Amino acid sequence: MSLAPLLVAVPVAAAALCVIAGHRAAGLSAIASVVTCGLGLVVAASAFTAPAERLLRGLIYVDALSGLIVLIVAVVSAIAGLYAVAYLRNALAAEEIVEAQVPWFYMWLHLSIGAMFAVPLLSNLGLMWVAIEATTLTTALLVAFFRHGHALE
Questions:
Q1: Residue 22 has what pLDDT?
Q2: Which of 43, 93, 94, 116 is 20 to 30 A removed from 146 (C-alpha atoms)?
Q3: What is the DSSP string of 51-97?
Q4: Distance CA 63, CA 43 (A)
């Protein structure tokens, strides 16, 4: 059985846990980013070396092309997730945000990552469209997180 469903489940679970974790959200987010990247690398390697497979009654389809997209999303999201820790620490020090906002940033970040992984893995076009829209909404909320006018440009 492939680990592909975990590529969506782990970021979604991390999003929920980051909100619950409060001030420990940064560490949890970093761990979730590394775990998700590791899962992405395993799924991508499997997709490149094994025949295409369908999972969850055909809901998920993993082939070499989806493996390539998963690889790209895994690496970029891990870099973003790890960089976000220092970025938010600096934003807190500069008083651009308050401590209570930090878990919410990580929630939106991991929901966005989960949605980005769902897009290349879903084999249903309707659900793929929902995942694309979820990516758009969560990313828009991340862009507007600091509530600066230049974020809208």
A1: 86
A2: 116
A3: --EEETTTTEEE-HHHHHHHHHHHHHHHHHHHHHHHHHHHHHHTTSS
A4: 10
Angle (nearest 5°) at CA 93 between 89 and 94 = 115
Under 8 Å CB-to-CB from 101, ≥6 apart: which residues? 145
129-151 burial, b for 16+ CB within 10 Å, e for fewer? eebeebbeebbebbeebeeeeee
The first and second tokens of residue 111, run together, are: 């929901």
Task: Identify any residues that bridge with 60 across adjacent strands, giving them in sequence order.
Answer: 55, 122
What are the phi and psi torsion angles at 128 (to 5°)?
-65, -40
Q: What is the mean pLDDT of the chain?
A: 92
Burial class (CB within 10 angstroms; exposed 0-12, middle 13-18, buried 19+) of 38: middle
